[in-house]
Amino acid sequence: MSSNFTIGVRFLLAKRKSMLMSLAGITFGVGFFIVTQAQTSGFEGFFVKTILGTNGALRVRERIQDTLRSMSVDESGEGFQISHKEGKRYVGDVAQPELVADAIRQFGNVAGVSRVVTGSGQLVLRGQTRPVQAYGILLDDHLGVSDLSEQIVFGELSDFRRTANGVLLSRYLAERLDVGLGEKIVFRAAGKARKLTVSAIYETGVRDIDKVRLFIHLRTARSILGKPFGASFLQVSLFDNDRAPHDARRMIEVTSHHVSEWQRREKVWLDVFKILRLSSAITVSVIILISGLGMFSVLAIIVMEKTREIAILRSMGYQRGDISKIFLWQGFVITLSGTLAGWIFGFLMTLGLANLPIRIRGIFSTDRFVVNWSLSHYLTAALIAFVVVMLASYFPARRAARLEPADVIRGTSA
Amino acid sequence: MADSTPSSFPGVTLACEKLERFLGEGENRIQILRQVNLELRSGCIYAVTGPSGCGKSTLLYTLGLLDREDAGEIWINGTKVSGATDGERTIIRNRNIGFVFQFHFLLPEFSALENVMLPMMKLGELTHEAMQIRANKLLDEVGLGEKSSRLANQRSGGEQQRVAIARALANQPDILLADEPTGNLDQNNSTVVIDLLCRMAREQDQTILVVTHNPAIADACDYTLPMLDGQFVPRD
Ligand SMILES: Nc1ncnc2c1ncn2[C@@H]1O[C@H](COP(=O)(O)OP(=O)(O)OP(=O)(O)O)[C@@H](O)[C@H]1O
Ligand SMILES: [Mg+2]
């Protein structure tokens, strides 16, 4: 084994230039694979964290039969129709939220349930009005199903907790209305108006949310919005978010309510991220593939140039298997060194990218490139490089092993 | 004693009977070896002579299990080896046979010492240090003791051929097969190489078969086996 390895490495070193080309190709391929995956999956993960932290893993609403035809438009943009054998069904307010919440808490994977009463209205300040969507919440319940505490950018949640007429305003609305902490604004809904005090300011980074959403206490919401009973929906957080579709299906069976999981609600964006990640993986794998082709030609040339040496090795007792190992070792050495160099290269690029400032608002909020440090990216890149290069080495190795030493030596004698 | 095989004679290291070999494909297929019989004893040097194209090299490759016989039988140290698998033949080559060709076939990326160690590394019976010691000793014997670390391609043709002889002797083979080992060498170097081969055969009790066109070399050998058209010429 060790002599096959030594011979392989010496053969390779004799072709240093072409070998370095393939090596560089694999290094770049592996490095770029890692950095693109770190970045795309980083942003994807951050997006998922944002949607879980704002709208929760699951949302539970009531099913409404088509018979009423009360096409209440869902302002939050999350209501939709489910086509069903018997006809269309719509979703609406949960009539008995405590009952449903108790049933849902029975699920082992459920981490928290928050009842939310929503309603649309306007914010009025200094003659300006803004259409908004008020979320009436029980603060502690809602903190259990969202990242609201992390999203506070100014002020304290404890101020909100203490103030019955307190409001959590988004940074977006606060800036538009030019209103600061402790100031009062007027909320108008259903013909009523109420003065609210700005207790804290939050930012999710999700444009659609920040533009309209404000949080008030559930009791306040019930009284302003004129909804003394029920809840608009229940927001549910889970321990294992990947199991959301499974839990949703079972909750539908148990509660006969409409349950939508985050994977379905955000399918469009999640698909965009998935495609981005996949297409960048494919693009970058092409670099590895091309270096694999380079490796193939380097080895094919070495086999051709070394037929005499192969024949003499065979004559002195090296088996066909030894000859193919000599060339497979060469592929392995290139894969290993290219992968290790690529790992370092990818690591350093990821590190550099993570410190690169970029301001993104819209679907999430970040001031830096988001990267995801995952060993799986490193292993996947290594696996791709390994498969490509070993496949590229296999054919020259097989060819070398099949050489008939007598034919080669016969051909060289005068 | 009609069924006595060559293997039953003591001292016979290499023997063949009714050995046949064809080369070429289809219409170009021609018989190169015609029912060759041969018995070679240890400690003796044999010269195979004959006109170009009569099948000397083919006989050498076939006897050395580098090429496969089409018919007939081969014995090495009393064991029938004809019909063995490629893997088995390769093991026998490693342990029992040393080749020296007209061209030295040294691996240019390796030093003389490493070239000599290659068959030992494959055999794997010695430690690395022991291999080095033995390779150095062999290089000493072929007169290249102090230049062992130089790369193989930084030497003269005669030196390279002497390294090739040291390599052929690496695993102390019973049989050394040399195909025009001095074909590329001048008179001086030829004499050195042949003297070396003779000394080895006597000291190590090896069987040596040398294919040569050089009458001086043939004379130096114990036996001369003239070949013609794929057969040995019968002695009168
Ligand atoms: N691949 C082949 N197909 C057909 N015939 C071949 C092939 N290779 C060699 N021969 C023929 O086989 C015959 C024997 O070749 P071989 O090399 O054994 O001769 P040789 O006695 O060693 O000759 P030389 O003294 O020139 O080395 C030659 O006539 C050659 O033309
Ligand atoms: Mg010949």
Give your account of this protein's structure.
The complex is a heterodimer of chains A (414) and B (236). The radius of gyration of chain A is 32 Å and the shape is elongated. Helix content of chain A is 56%, strand content 20%. Chain A has two domains: 3-53 and 269-410, no CATH class; 58-67 and 89-262, no CATH class. By secondary structure, chain A is α+β, with helices and mostly antiparallel strands. In chain A, helix 1 (2-14) crosses helix 14 (320-354), helix 2 packs antiparallel against helix 12 and helix 2 (16-55) packs antiparallel against helix 15 (375-402). In chain B, 34% of the residues lie in helices and 25% in strands. The longest helix of chain B has 18 residues, at 187-204. Chain B is globular, with a radius of gyration of 18 Å. With 236 residues, chain B is α/β, with parallel strands linked by helices. In chain B, helix 3 (112-123) crosses helix 4 (128-141), helix 3 (112-123) packs parallel to helix 5 (157-168) and helix 5 packs parallel to helix 6 (187-204). Chain B has a six-stranded mixed beta sheet. Chain B has a four-stranded antiparallel beta sheet with strand order 2-1-4-5, with helices on one face. Chains A and B meet through helix 1, helix 13 and helix 16 of A and helix 1, helix 2 and helix 3 of B. The complex binds adenosine-5'-triphosphate and magnesium ion.
Total number of strands of chain A: 13
Cα-to-Cα separation, first versus last residue of chain A: 35 Å
| Strand count of chain B | 10
- The H/E string of chain A reads HHEEHEEHHEHEHEEHEHEHEHHHHEEHH
Strand order of the main beta sheet of chain A, please? 3-4-9-6-8-7
What distance lies between the first and last C-alpha atoms of chain B, to the nearest angstrom? 24 Å
Please trace the helix and strand order of chain B, writing H or E for each element.
Answer: EEEHEEHEHHHEHEHEE
Secondary structure category of chain B = alpha/beta
| pLDDT < 50 stretches of chain B | none
- The assigned structural class of chain A equals alpha+beta
How many distinct folded domains of chain A? 2
Q: Can you give the mean pLDDT of chain B?
A: 88
Low-confidence stretches of chain A: 66-75, 80-87
Strand content of chain A: 15-25%
The average pLDDT value of chain A, as a whole number, equals 87
Spatial order of strands in the largest sheet of chain B: 6-7-8-3-9-10
Q: Which term fits the overall shape of chain B?
A: globular
The main pleated sheet of chain A reads as:
6 strands, mixed, barrel
Oligomer: heterodimer
Ions, cofactors and other bound molecules: adenosine-5'-triphosphate, magnesium ion
The radius of gyration over CA of chain A amounts to: 32 Å
